[in-house]
Design a protein that fits this description.
By secondary structure, the protein is α+β, with helices and mostly antiparallel strands. Strands 1-2-3-4-6-5 form a six-stranded antiparallel beta sheet. Helix 4 packs antiparallel against helix 9.
């Protein structure tokens, strides 16, 4: 949800210099990168380095997002969000405006990357995303406002990163920000309480969004509509089972969803094929000297002997019957 009044209020031209009140670092605005409910992000230069600078009229929001970035830095093995570089205030037209500076993550957004590289890269970036989300969830956070616009693919080698942590929320609390298409509450499939399943629902919707770059409008607005849309795209049929489980909140963790996607490319276990083959060979190799012809001959001989035996029994019974009549 965008704050257009904030965008108009803080519309700064390229070349505008922002100087921190406390740290006195200077940042020269290059261009606007994006804006949301709680602020505007600019590309800026500082000492020859490109950085991302976010301005907000909500000091509490800035403090919250800064705390999130600090928490991200403590999550082992993940670089999902940008690094925090500076936090300060700026005196502008008699007002004090809060801002913070972070690492500028350069690269195409997720949808652009897939369109350029091809759909075969979908699994690569989604598996990376789920791996990072798992570590984030293990640290007690939920990303919240997860969508392709917030996901940048850097590299080489390709690496998925996020450029907006405004929706990141401590597990158990109400979400701070969300985007309707990726929100399970919007589709009537869950609450807006921060839990890992909320992020996994969004990952499923990201997979759908890759197949529908322009997205689609809510009609019935339920699980049936989403599954119907999945089945209209052949590139999504492979992921149908995984998407369905994520939409229904059946995955217990991001790692479980990751393993389910990973298993989609695994070949059929060879043990099943091996078990069938020896059984067929065993019938042929148990008696290698017995050919089909000898088997037929044996069967014929057995049939002749059986006929003779039956004839002898009948003859004996007949003789006994005649003998009984004479006596």
């Amino acid at each position: 949800m965008m704050n257009h009044s904030l965008k108009n209020q803080f519309k700064f031209n390229p070349g505008t210099v922002i100087e921190g009140k406390w740290h006195h670092n200077r940042y020269t605005i290059v261009k606007e990168l994006g804006f949301g409910a709680n602020g505007i992000v600019f590309l800026a230069n500082s000492g020859g380095q490109q950085v991302a600078l976010k301005i907000s009229d909500n000091g509490m929001s800035v403090t919250s997002e800064v705390n999130v970035l600090k928490s991200f830095a403590k999550v082992p093995g993940t670089a999902l969000g940008p690094s925090l570089l500076d936090v300060d205030d700026w005196l502008w037209n008699g007002r004090q405006i809060s801002f913070y500076v972070m690492e500028y993550i350069e690269g195409p957004d997720l949808l652009t990357f897939i369109q350029e590289k091809g759909p075969s890269w979908t699994e690569v970036v989604i598996l990376q995303l789920l791996s990072d989300l798992h570590r984030l969830h293990e640290s007690g956070w939920v990303f919240g406002d997860l969508k392709p616009e917030n996901l940048i693919v850097t590299g080489p080698p390709p690496r998925i990163r996020c450029i907006d942590v405004g929706g990141t929320t401590i597990q158990g609390r109400a979400l701070k920000e969300f985007t309707e298409f990726f929100d399970r509450g919007y589709w009537g499939l869950g609450s807006r309480k921060a839990d890992p399943a909320y992020d996994l629902f969004a990952v499923a919707m990201i997979l759908i969004n890759i197949a529908y770059p322009k997205r689609f409008h809510k009609t019935s607005g339920d699980l049936k509509q989403l599954i119907f849309m999945v089945r209209q795209k052949k590139e999504l049929l492979k992921f149908e089972g995984v998407i369905l489980q994520a939409l229904q909140g059946k995955f217990t963790s991001a790692d479980e969803m990751r393993q389910s996607i990973f298993q989609l490319n695994q070949p059929e276990p060879k043990s099943q094929k091996v078990n069938r083959a020896p059984q067929r060979k065993q019938v042929q190799t148990n008696n290698p000297t017995v050919s089909r012809q000898s088997y037929i001959k044996k069967k014929k001989r057995g049939g002749v002997l059986e006929s003779i035996l039956i004839f002898l029994i009948i003859s004996l019974l007949y003789v006994l019957y005649i003998y009984g009549q004479l006596v």
